[in-house]
Structures
1.
Amino acid sequence: DTSVSEARQDNPMWSSRLAFILAASGSAVGLGNIWKFPYITGENGGGAFVLVYLLCIALIGMPIMIAEVMIGRRGGRSPINSLRMLTQRDGLSTRWTWIGWMGITASFLILSFYSVIGGWALSYVGQSAGGVFTDSNADSIGALFGGLLSDPWTLLLWHSVFMVLVITIVAGGIRSGMEKAINILMPILFILLLVMVGYALSSGDFAQGFAFLFQPDFSKLTTEGILTALGHAFFTLSLGMGVMMAYGSYLPKNVSIVKTAVAVSVVDTVVALLAGLAIFPLVFANGLEPGSGPGLIFQTLPLAFGQMTGGVLFGTLFFALLVVAAVTSAISLLEPVVEWLEEQKGINRLSGTLIGGISIWVLGLFTILSFNEWADVHPLDFIPVFENKTIFDLLDYVTANLMMPLGGLFIAIFVGWFMNKQAVENQLDINNGYGFKIFMFILRFITPAAVATVFIYNLV
Ligand code: PFF
Ligand code: NA
């Protein structure tokens, strides 16, 4: 029964701990950090929201990442089959495999809108290279973004280009080449973010931007804000849906899961905070509205690129690398859907990728229309928590704020209360007994209680 998992781990996909960290960071670091984190921070009033978000990462996100990687490494298969094997081996209910099914559904829904936003970034590569940002002002950049959103055909074009990229990479064997490229491109993105923070420091209102991010004003924190922070902790770390389980199945046995999960979480958090530090000083210096929504980075960063020396080059490079970061996350979203079609439906890889990818592309049309023709369509207005939400808002809310935390809750309960304790201890390999006890305490009590409390407050 263990032969498959041993085969996977004796011949691991990741040559080292670093290779796994880079691959998992490729899934984690994406639009969530650079596009979503700044705009939801702006909408939720800044500091207090950021604090809750950081607490969610540390107390909920990291333990769940550890738990997920652990299930994957012990199971050594795709998420659903790992869960099936672990439950059968320990005589537990195979209902736990539902976590995997929900994860596939969430991947499908997330990629449909993720690709549309990835398309925005793609279109900005061209705008930047064409010098459109040069000598612009807040009004002209706002009009440019507004023009993009109001034009469904242009959005469709870039959404299609983005999906073709992702489908090609998942279907073809160019994955390994991709991974090597990521190892070079991600550090460059990181350096570019530092350049942008440097620009914000010299030309933006850095003091106000910094204070907005790190000075908590609890009067601005709402219960919905807390749910958004919790949901974003899951979204940004790619948790609660089996992606980290899938990656964990290839992790060599001698690598520390705890250290690895901490490293991935720290990288992801640093990238998000750098994005915030690059954007908010520009928001305040240009008199923009922090809560202006999903267009925030597309309305602020071009201003900086338009003014700084070498801005055409930096801007083009920045949006191109944002696309790369988005594509590496998108791959980790399409992969489980394709694996499911292959395993359960007996479809070959190419057809599976095409069927999955095209269905996701079609669903993406709803997100495109949410920004123009259907901007006033709020299909679930009769349900209080879904009030005033477009289809895009609903897809985002249902996946990040409901499905992912729910998946995480079940993962925490499974590892904390049901999975063979000796196996957990072996996987964790924490020699000092206290570390293990603290981890188990968090996973058994703190994580489930926190997720459940936030849920109940928001739904009641
Ligand atoms: N973590 C990615 C980001 O922050 O952009 C988004 C994501 C990727 C979410 C993969 C979920 C997932 F399974
Ligand atoms: Na992220």
2.
Amino acid sequence: MTVFDVHAHVFPRLTRAEGSMIADAGAPWLRVHRDGTGMMMSGDDEYRPVDPGLWDPARRLADMDASGVDAQAVSSTPLMFGYAAPPSRAADWCDLVNDRILAYCADAPDRLLPLCQVPLQDTRLACEAATRAAAAGHRGVHIGNHVGDRNLDDPGIVEFLAHCARIGLPVLAHPWDMLGADRMRGHMLPWLAGMPAETQLSILGLMLSGAFERIPASLRLCFCHGGGSFAFLLGRADNAWHNRDIVRADSPRPPSEYTHRFHVDSAVFDPRALRLLVEVMGTGRVMLGTDYPFPLGEKDPGAAIRACPGLDDAERALLLGGNARAFFEPARTKEGTPA
Ligand code: CO
């Protein structure tokens, strides 16, 4: 049985000078100390202390061995997205980051699957960057769940998602730049309340805008953190769709009829919540996600899946790795060549 983690982050070693490619102030870079610890930096500010697995592939592989993880999809850290920068500058930055992620994963190509990032603020440049990265060896694309005030159902982002479907590139959508920051000043509330709300907003936006009617059904799209709060409140959205014309104005089907259009990871940390998620999504659409190596991640990868009630061994194997293997399987054309 394969254990495959679809939600794990990397911050390749980037100097402050390299980080300044994307931002004059608040440049993202990595400060590595003599004692082996590190600090994610935003310009002069210390953003977050980090563990070596974030930038050291040997350490990551040792951690994976110790925790029984066979494979990981490796994505950048949202601090690195660069969506606020001028598009051409962001495109050059994404190329640099993507090259570093490829180099990071080259140590163990059968275990570390590189995911690229793109300048999502510019649809044409984002599509070109995704195509370029896929040709260079990236196995998926990691995107933030919004670009400023544009949600995932924004026409330009829908066009990008359709492009990913056409070139067979899986998409991992991660919450970031959380709403309501002025009312979430402490206790990591942006992570605890903001992130699940962001993801729910993204999923409901795609459902209620009718965007899933315009995006090819072949798109492979996964939301982090179990899709945030959407599964628990899907009944509320369905009830609203049935009872208010303004809710159903743009979508021909109620929200619950679109759950087969995306996947979610398993990072909900409670077997009871995971049970509900599996009932909402089906056993084929939930995949192990740990948020490695960050402190809010699942420290014993797959513990919630193993403790989830009502799953047989075959279903548990799907959640632990089988679904992820299929999700990241290289797309093939009818002739059998990579798409
Ligand atoms: Co994450």
3.
Amino acid sequence: PADAPWWTRAVVYQVYPRSFQDSDGDGIGDLGGVLQRLDHLADLGVDVVWLSPVYPSPQADNGYDISDYQDVDPLFGTLEQLDELVAGLHARGVKLVMDLVVNHTSDEHPWFVESRSSPDSPKRDWYWWRPPRAGLAPGDPGAEPTNWHGFFSGSTWELDEASGEYYLHLFDRRQPDLNWENPEVRQAVYAMMRWWLDRGVDGFRMDVINLISKDVGPDGELHDGPPLPGLPYGDATASVVCGPRIHEFLQEMHREVFTGRREQLLLVGETPGATVEDALLFTDPARGELDMVFQFEHVGLDFEGSKFHPRPLRMRDLKASFGRWQTGLADVGWNSLYWDNHDQPRAVSRFGDDSPRHRRDSATCLATLLHLHRGTPYVYQGEEIGMANFPFTDLAQFRDVESINHQVQAVAHGADPDEVFAALRRMSRDNARTPVQWDASPSAGFTTGTPWLEVNPDHAEWNAAAQRDDPASVLAHHRRLIALRHEDPVVALGSFTMLLPDHDQVYAFTRGLDGDTLLVVCNLGAEEQDLAGLLPETVGAEVVLGNLPEDDPAVLRPWEARVLRLP
Ligand code: TEU
């Protein structure tokens, strides 16, 4: 344990700068704003800040479409302010991890502009250019080189009229995929990464990093995927998720960029579709790839097929999923733990109960559950104060490219607009992107101008200022959970054992290290539970931390969470 990596004891906080704090009144958060809020982060006690993209970008996908990897967009500030942020965080003992988006660039990146300029361009092969399907002319229905459906709806191929060829974009058409088969692309990315590390940043959160290797057969061809039910497209998964050279690429990156500096850094990959087996390979320290990955299983249990077809979550599925990840990475590798990020609806609304009666208790209960697992917990801005989904009333309120593309395409394919709205209201990424609620003032202290996305009207009651000095608040509870991980080696390094796997409401597990055992029990529902009956060993155990004032030890109240030390 003494030689365990530093990040086993660490908690990471994600800043989505557009929605964190505005300092210049344009209604969009910026680096000046982050600099104003450093004390909030220090006070919470987090060890690392992951900063979502601030690079120059046309903002088609809020900065995940980058047109220059080595600068800061004027919308967010300057490179000097980024240096100030590194210094300001380091002065508080906090590291800064940058978002690394290298599966794709913006279509306005000079590399793509040059690549598009002519089939003879020396950069043509930096992206995925393909002629129309054999026998069809450019633009013909079905002429796309493969039948793949994109993450943001529609085909993954966009026709370039000038050359009559298509380019690949797994996300929006303004996010062309880089061709990692080309060694020049890889070297350009590695050089850029070294430049950031030399500037003092402490690692990378690597956007969809498991999509960078595409399955080109020996013939250099990309192949159709199996048809998707109800859509005129096929599933690209088998060709793009954890492709044949993914581990080779990551090991090469590791050698070229992290050699000699790995110990101090945090390398976390975002890996949609990765299985436990994939994650083992990514995070086995001996392989020299990544420290940990964000897996997507637990955020894929409350919908059918695609995220805009929601269905209720079954507790058993959640336990089975988390349980498998805990067991699968018990001896080798490491888990990232998250409920929320800028792509997911708010956890208290999704997994908890955001009604006035249960909001505080369910937010603190969920946090306890997450932070007591084995792995590195990630807190997404606003989660620490129990921010909830936005009460959308109209399709026109959505700003996110994924939501808008889905809306347009689903309706075009005959979906009922009311159903589309209901799904977006529940699942849209914009739920996570409303401005952070700092105080009860009209724009919640986020901006003096007009916020780019409406502030949640509940901010009058739910805000950081109201919670700062309240020991019963969601914020104070997060502070305690973070401190507990720092102090207690069982929380950081203990083994994990799931209890009551089939119970529909109580989520319980133990963590053990060197004969010391913590038992964690969470009531994920509104009915009281007979704790003494379910887990007799809890009777008489010391309460290390709870989310409600201590009362009858034999009973678990609605949304109550307790961390107990077994004798
Ligand atoms: O997300 C990738 C991803 O797989 C999903 O979370 C995606 O955002 C969507 O929810 C699928 O339904 C990453 C970034 O986190 C996201 O913000 C970007 O839009 C995306 O990559 C493209 O860069």
